[in-house]
Write a structure and sequence with these properties.
Length: about 400
């Protein structure tokens, strides 16, 4: 299993997906139903990655995924003589491989929003832009694999719609981390709203911030690291909205407004423990993103019993379960700040929050890493069997 996308400081989406899947596969292949049938090893590019990966898994070092040597990776991996390799991304080098290969395509976001992740080196960012100008490069990469994995039925449908691969596609969903006990649905939540995600334009954090003057007494917690320029843009937006609505403009400890306007707190990065603590006291997790491959924070919030207010789009309805009271949709068009504020106020009706909290826990129970790992292992077995049969026919 390719663990080279694991971060060395704290998880992002791809890092957490890969590490969590590795941990679940390790459990199933050492003490679960797959014990004795599959042996798993990891590929890492930096030993510091092992801190965020499960202990006790054999590992091998290879070049990094953004290295110019990535096309030569199969030469390195062939020496290890694996039957099948799984990568949580689709860009793994594959030319000259002598093993089965499963690549992962999480979403098609960057075909519509072509701003690459900011943490990539500038030459890689330019290649990223070129790669997403058309579907040809994607088809070339995916068709070099034996099978393709994705994280949702929504993305699987888009892969089929755009004919991105001739290979079988398996849905290996994201999942929240196990929760020992959800929060008490009968305890009144704090008047706080939690956003976990990046500040890229398509995430539409602007509408969340613009809504806060309409929500006096509430605090919007923006948890992720934010570039200084982007933070300045959002603070200026908040000031304009306060002026337009006549809301109070007192300045709080975190540099955001208080008074008769809702407050905005820029945390600029939090630990997992801080994230969970904020999530378990909040009224809702909030996200007005216009595109997602899965939306893991949605499942994470529901697993703790925290309702979700989010964009009304297929992937969030898939993860959150349609129009269940755990998920309060906000239209993609129109006055989004006003529509968002109205949904927040919906949860203040007598008994509404408790009903939504209980529904959230019930929905999140459908997502487990062990189930995702079992789906992946079934795909691995299919690839291994098909390759063995092909060798037998040739022999």
């Amino acid at each position: 299993m390719d663990a080279r996308y694991t971060r060395t400081d704290f998880h992002d989406g791809i890092s957490r997906y890969g590490a969590s899947l590795i941990a679940a596969v390790h459990r199933l292949t050492t003490a679960g139903e797959w014990a004795g049938r599959v042996q798993m090893h990891m590929l890492v590019s930096d030993e510091a990655q092992l801190r965020l990966l499960p202990a006790g898994v054999p590992w091998h070092r290879a070049t990094g995924p953004t290295s110019p040597l990535e096309p030569t990776l199969p030469v390195q991996v062939n020496r290890l003589r694996p039957d099948v390799v799984f990568s949580p991304m689709q860009t793994m080098g594959s030319a000259g491989r002598r093993y089965g290969l499963i690549l992962t395509l999480h979403d098609l976001i960057y075909y519509e929003h072509r701003t690459p992740p900011r943490n990539l080196p500038e030459p890689v960012r330019w290649l990223w832009r070129l790669y997403h100008l058309g579907y040809g490069p994607q088809r070339l990469l995916l068709n070099r694999a034996d099978r393709v994995a994705t994280v949702s039925q929504t993305t699987a449908g888009l892969i089929a719609e755009h004919a991105l691969t001739r290979r079988p596609v398996d849905v290996v969903p994201n999942a929240p981390q196990p929760v020992a006990e959800p929060r008490n649905p009968d305890a009144a939540p704090a008047r706080s709203l939690v956003y976990m995600g990046s500040f890229m334009d398509y995430k539409d954090v602007d509408s969340l911030v613009a809504a806060m003057p309409l929500l006096p007494g509430y605090t919007l917690h923006l948890l992720s690291t934010v570039p200084a320029e982007r933070r300045a843009e959002l603070e200026a937006l908040l000031a304009r909205r306060r002026a337009e609505t006549g809301a109070g403009t007192a300045t709080g400890a975190h540099g955001a407004g208080a008074g008769t306007s809702g407050e905005v707190v820029f945390h600029n990065g939090v630990t997992d423990e801080e994230y969970i603590a904020l999530l378990r006291e909040a009224t809702a997790l909030v996200t007005l993103s216009r595109a997602e491959g899965y939306g893991l924070p949605v499942a994470e919030a529901m697993s703790h019993g925290t309702p979700v207010i989010g964009s009304d789009m297929p992937i969030f309805r898939e993860v959150a379960g349609g129009a269940e009271p755990a998920f309060l949709p906000v239209p993609l068009d129109g006055d989004r700040p006003a529509a968002f504020a109205a949904q927040v106020r919906t949860l203040t009706a007598p008994g509404a929050w408790a009903v939504a909290s209980r529904a959230a826990v019930g929905r999140a129970a459908r997502y487990r890493w062990e189930d995702s790992a079992a789906r992946l292992l079934a795909a691995v077995e299919s690839v291994a069997d098909e390759r063995a049969q092909s060798r037998s026919r040739r022999g």
